[in-house]
Every structure is written in C-alpha cells, then in structure tokens.
Amino acid sequence: MTNDTIYMRLNFLAPIFAKMPKTIMALRYRHLTKWKLNLKDPQLFNEKIIWLSFNTDTTEWTTASDKYAVRDYVINKWGSDDILNEIYGVYERAEDIDFDALPQSFVLKTNNACTTNIIVHDKTKLDVHGAIRQLNRWLKHRYGDMTSQPHYSRIKPLIIAEKLLVQDKNDPTKGLTDYKFNCFEGKVHSCVTMGDRTTNSHRTSKMHYDLQWNPHPEMYDEEPYNERFSYPGYVDKPQSLDKMIEIASVLCKGFKYVRVDLYEIEGKPVFGELSFLPGFDYYRSLKIQRMLGDLIKL
Known about the structure:
The protein is α+β, with helices and mostly antiparallel strands. It is about 30% helix and about 20% strand. The chain starts with a helix and ends in a 5-residue tail after the last helix.
C-alpha cells in the first residue's frame, strides 16, 4: 500500500490535519527519512523546500501544480502550446464524462493530487461505473491537507480526459519514462529519470544524470534500502535532450526550486507537470541532501 493510498483512506482526518500542517509535515518527514525536520535553520534540500512552502508566497505554486491550470501557465511562459498533451475534456463530476465521445484509448486523472490516474488502453474493457465511482472518490480526496501542502489545497478539483501517451509502439501498454529536471534558482541542474513504474504508485527504477547525460549512481550509493526504487535504472539519452533543457530553463524561471517533468514521444518533448515538493526519499544521503541544499539560497 502506497503512502498516497493511506492518505486517501484517512481522508476523514483532513480537517484536523489542515489545522496543524507543520506538525503533520514534521511527522511525515520523520516517517519517510528518519530525520528530524529543522525549519529554524534549514540546511538540507528537503528542509529548504519545505521551509519555502510555509514561509513564502506560494500562490504561483498553486497555479503551476494544478494539472489543468498549468496549461495556460506553460503557454504564457513557453509562448506556445506545442509541448502540451492533447485533452479531450475537463469535468467537475465523473457523471459528466461522455465516454462514448472519447477515443478508444485515453487517460482520466484528477488535477489536484498524485497517483490518481485511470489509464485506458481499450475502452470496450473499461468498467465505466467503477471508473466513475473511483474518480468521484478522488475528487473528494483532500490531498493538500493530508500531505501538508497548502498550495494543493487551494486547487479546485477537476477531472481531465487526455490523450494516452505511448513511447513504445510495439508495446503500447508499457509505462512511460519520466524525465524530471531539477532546477535551482532559475537554472536547470540535473535530470532524474524514472521508468518501469507500477501504475498509480511511486514504485519505479531511477537514475540521476547531469546535463551531458553522464549517469551519477553515486547520488544513491549511500542510500539505505528503499523499496520504492530500484537501482540502477539507466536509460538512453533522449533525442530531444537539448530541447528538454531549453523548456525546463524557461519554465523554472522565478522559482528557488522546481522540478520540471517531461516525456519524450516520437523524439519530441511533451510536458508532464511541475513539482515543488518532490518525494522526500528521492535522495536519502545526508551528504547529497546538503549538496543540493547548498544550491538553494534562502
């Protein structure tokens, strides 16, 4: 069971959690990292981005984290919609989805949480009533309150129907490889790749690359065992790496830290999402945490 699943099952506690976000965040941090959260004098990477979430204006974080509103954000920043995935519809209720009008394959997801996706490869095999029940449950999930991320709590919950992205035409059901660009102080620093993902989970293989696509497994060598990730997860250099870096460098401007997530489909980048508080167990070494923390100037 993933942490996100646990949060959904405990959703009834959201009103209580919302009243003490720093306490809940400290408990989450201790549970996931085994370290005590220091927000009085933050030094580590995770400490600094958490400090930013509680001590700076995160209004723009809300817009950029909203999987629907971010589309206009990207167009305004990038100047075009050519890197955006095609969407078929946006809905406030699952009952409003016209499944007959959707193509044979598509993805349904909510805009205000994580791991809330229904991937449909063949519409004729979809349990429509089950999908409607699941989506309505997700719409009620107070993800921001449960994870102490107030910028998510301000997002109006919606359902998005979008094109199913396929990287391997020989195996359309194969999961996508994510290219997650770490950006510090408005500059692209590195890329973390994730592949072989278990649907609606954070279980995946990963690798850290510099911008010349040299792998850096030492970023994880000192980590204790982590069942969420497998190592190493080497992937080939994407054909569109230079374009990806250009996109990330534009979208990250104005932020102390942001992660720009992209995919590569038929040699071209496709925007995924922007994230300001990535998983606390991405980098579990204190040495690496301090190194990355030094890149953020508070």
